[in-house]
Specification:
By secondary structure, the protein is an alpha/beta fold. The protein is built from 12 helices and 14 strands.
């Protein structure tokens, strides 16, 4: 790899975005759903909902893999890999980036996150052995179920030979992947990156496991609202193209936003209970690394799962970092619409945050009813709002106390 210059020389921008989720199969459709307050949460179809206590989820609908992939390649792809490739394809096309020009393919990273990887393949393997009695697993089981499979397939599909790996850190996986891609470009270890997260984890076993944690809502996801019952599991992928600002300007690329900072921390506390101080630390580091003051932030895409403790803790952490300015912020949880897509959650939320910066439209938190006295900020209830977004952060505060926050700045 060619030398890229001194540490911290390069500013990093996002020039392409792609996504698939319960709200649609591409960014324009998903953004329309987000800004009009549509819900992608419905009765589960990919598992027998009658066997479950919680019968709702945010599944990708009307999806036929054959519409997207050649029949010879499809056997190699678990559902989560398919989603990653679809989102990456859209992001690359949107960016207009040419990896063959100036041998850019040698210096482009592929960092793709997932919380559980090829869960669909695992489920099929268990069914094959224990329900149908077949003695052997399918020969492609391991290549499909690997958590790193999506990252590998992105490199192979698009001919990328730079740094490539998977990040798996529960619901912060996507932000960790995109944050590390940002640091790679900023510090000269890569010129560009295809990065984000993907997840597809629906099965009877997976849903039963989540039911046992007692964090699932039975009807709707109501982040920050009094009477909220919990989160709703989702699936999908979000991918972005990051590159050096000077490269984007040189080729006349459209710039969605500058990646201004990245903060991460660990609670070192409970495996499931969030800690206010950990979230505060990650937000502070993101602002400090971006050279942004709290007053420079206009919008926060919150982690906002809809669980009792998470929403109260995140609200307190925002107040701890932003002080009086917290009440001037617009804060929304798009999980109320696309569900909690686990390792892909923060990647889906990054797409929403980028579009908010680009369009000046802040997506709502839908299903918001009676205010919770412990959650007393402006959560953009039920309807999108128009405003100029010059600075934004996207929070991800995962199980295990693994926190990752990315700060964006509008590019003039």
């Amino acid at each position: 790899m060619n030398a890229m210059g001194p540490i911290d020389q390069h500013r990093v921008v996002i020039t392409g975005i792609g996504s698939i989720s319960s709200l649609g199969h591409n960014v324009p459709t998903i953004w329309e759903g987000l800004t009009t307050g549509q819900s992608g949460i419905e009765k589960i179809s990919r598992a027998n909902a009658e066997m479950l206590h919680v019968k709702i989820a945010a599944e990708v609908k009307d999806y036929d893999p054959a519409d997207h992939f050649d029949e010879k390649q499809l056997p190699f792809y678990d559902r989560f890999t398919q989603f990653a490739l679809i989102a990456a394809r859209e992001a690359i096309q949107d960016s207009g980036i040419d990896f063959q020009k100036d041998d850019l393919f040698e210096e482009t990273a592929a960092i793709v996150a997932s919380g559980v990887g090829g869960w669909t393949t695992i489920d099929e393997a268990f069914t094959r052995m224990y329900e149908t009695g077949q003695a052997r697993a399918h020969p492609l089981t391991v290549p499909r179920l690997m958590i790193s499979a999506a990252a590998s397939q992105v490199t192979m599909n698009f001919g990328l030979k730079g740094p490539a790996f998977c990040v798996s850190s529960a619901c912060s996986s996507g932000n960790h992947a995109m944050g590390e891609a940002y640091w790679m470009i900023r510090t000269g270890r890569a010129r560009a990156a295809v990065t984000g997260g993907s997840e597809a984890a629906f099965s009877i076993i997976a849903q039963r496991a989540w039911e046992s944690v007692r964090v699932l809502a039975k009807d709707k996801c109501r982040p920050f609202s009094k009477g909220r019952q919990g989160m709703v599991i989702g699936e999908g992928a979000g991918m972005v193209i990051m590159e050096r600002l000077e490269d984007a300007i040189a080729r006349g690329a459209k710039i969605y936003a500058e990646v201004a900072g990245y903060g991460l921390s660990s609670d070192a506390g409970d495996i499931v209970m969030p800690d206010q101080k950990g979230g505060e630390k990650a937000m502070r580091i993101a602002l400090q690394s971006a050279a942004l003051n709290p007053e420079d932030i206009d919008y926060i895409n919150a982690h906002g799962t809809g669980t009792q403790m998470n929403d109260v803790t995140e609200t307190a952490a925002i107040k701890g970092v932003f002080g009086n300015h917290a009440h001037a912020l617009k804060i929304s949880s798009t999980k109320s619409m696309h569900g909690h897509a686990l390792g892909a959650a923060s990647a889906l939320e990054m797409i929403a945050t980028l579009k908010a910066v680009e369009t000046g439209i802040v997506p709502p938190t839908i299903n918001y009813g009676e205010p919770d006295p412990k959650c007393d900020l402006d959560y953009v209830p039920n309807e999108a709002q128009e405003m100029t977004v010059n600075g934004a952060i996207s929070n991800s505060l995962a199980f295990g106390g693994l926190n990752a926050v990315i700060a964006l700045r509008k590019h003039a």
